[in-house]
Amino acid sequence: MTYRFSTRQTLAHGLLILGAIIVLLPFYVMISTSFKSPAEIATGTGGVFGSQALFPDPTCLALGGNETECLVRPVRDNYSQAFTAAPLWRYLLNGVIVTASIFVLQTLIAVPAAYALAKLKFWGRDAAFALVLFCLLIPVHAIALPLYLMLAKLGLTNSYAALILPWIVSAFGIFLMRQFFMTVPDDLIDAARMDGMGEFAIIWRVMLPTAIPALLAFAIFSVVAHWNDYFWPRIVITGDRSLFTPPLGLREFKGDLGGDVYGPMMASATIIAVPLVVAFLLAQRRFIDGITLSGMK
Amino acid sequence: MSDLASLTKSVPNQQRSVRPEHPERRQARAGMVLFAPALVLLILILIVPVGVAALLSLTDYTLGRPSIDWVGLRNYIDIFTGSSYRKMIVATVLYVALVVPASVFLGLGAALLIRSLNVGQSFYKTVYFLPVMASLLAMAIVWEFALHPTLGIVNRTLAMGCGTPLELWSWFARSCIDGFPLWLGDRDYALYTLAFIGIWQSFGFNMVLYLAGLTSVPNDLYGAASMDGVKRGWERFRLITWPMLGPTTVFVVTITMIRSFQVFDTVEALTHGGPAKSTYVMIYAIYEKGIAQNLVGLGAAITILFLAFVMLISVAQRRFVERKVHYQ
């Protein structure tokens, strides 16, 4: 048997720590850089969190301020610039609006459809399920061009609708909830019918409460995917900053500014990555289940 | 909506009414009504665009111009004869061929190592899963900075190795004299660098799938094997673990393939398909041709080709699962 400090265990830890260093490297670079002054970034000094020595802010100097008035602490300067150089709060709010709307609409559409597929006998049900299975094969990113053209024809590009509409029907969500509803006993539904509940009430008051774990997992899957999505917002939002989602805002930061703004840029990246990473650290098991959902088939 | 409301309300009345509607017929109607929104949207959002792309790929359509001409297969011929499109196929296939095996085997290796630990399992699991959670665009921008030729931590760290025995490695010695690679700015390294970021981002996902797969391998199998004299770790892996993980592997390979085919964020943000088209992958080509340059016909033809690739992979997986992966 292997003991806690056997050679084999030590070797395994050694390999895994090496991997962990590589995996964590960019996170370290991101956070550490967001704490440093431009001079420290340029020379690669300052250790992990920078020396935090005060330095004169160049924009303040350019506006005619004197040296002592313009002294700033690097970490404060980087994070405040992240919010002032671009409307970052607006981007974060847009991210919340878009991901929340997508999830709510996906649920409203997928849950009744899944219930119908799992528990109601209707003409064409097998064909309907086959259609869902077929649609699982089509990645939405792959058909971005025709979707974009259709939205452009409707005059909907550069709107929240463009960010949300293509995602409101999730073949995967329907499939997942259907598989879950199949395991709910028919007796439960029959009893509810006996009590005089309509099908619509059965879905939301009987089926959905039993499916909370599956729905939560799907919520995590959906929110993570859409908070981090860059491709689709990049296509349908052109120019109108008030509609930017967090990744678009960060990309603009990189595109706009020259070489000496790494500090504020890394601060923005940290702010954008933090909500999901913290949520993940707090509820790891749920997140891992949610994101690997597609492995449940 | 009013349909659904009346459906809900009408039920209690029916129970009391003298001539109740046939319950099966009522169920059938409810089923159709409840599935209808999903049906309409699946068709409009997923099926119709495929058809639209197929039709447009045979035209010279551009957004904003009223006329539209049929050009037959010319867009497809352009793709298969033009040198930049040949580079596109090469870059895409090479990227997938680099990312898939590395990401799958690193995921498997990490899962096996983590499972063998007595302490710290959840620590490593959390760390390796972090890149899956973090925004790929944000992390791509961080990697770009880490790989910056002069400011980046990677080349700075490598330069510290100069003058040490690492110089026995000829590549390293040469780099110490001529400078370390530009990574994303060098056509010989750019695609490999992007593939590295892709592997970094995705293998934690595969690790979690393999960890789940490993829990379903029954422990008695190892007991039985050790009775039969299979004691060495490698033999146990080859005879039991690997075959039992068959279904997981098929799934992991498929999903990694489909995802790496869709690489876009890192390409758009870091290389724009360059240098010298060395990272000109398909989804980026669709974006550049079809949307940025408004050459819709060409973009649509690449879309159809791309869909064909993805469908082929999925269908192959379903076939494979049905035929081969039956170990139990």
Automatic annotation (TrEMBL), chain A:
InterPro entries: MetI-like, MetI-like_sf. This is sn-glycerol-3-phosphate transport system permease. It is found in: Cell membrane. It is a multi-pass membrane protein. SUPFAM superfamilies: MetI-like (SSF161098). Its main location: membrane. PANTHER family: ABC TRANSPORTER PERMEASE PROTEIN MG189-RELATED (PTHR43744:SF12), ABC TRANSPORTER PERMEASE PROTEIN MG189-RELATED-RELATED (PTHR43744). GO terms for biological process: transmembrane transport.
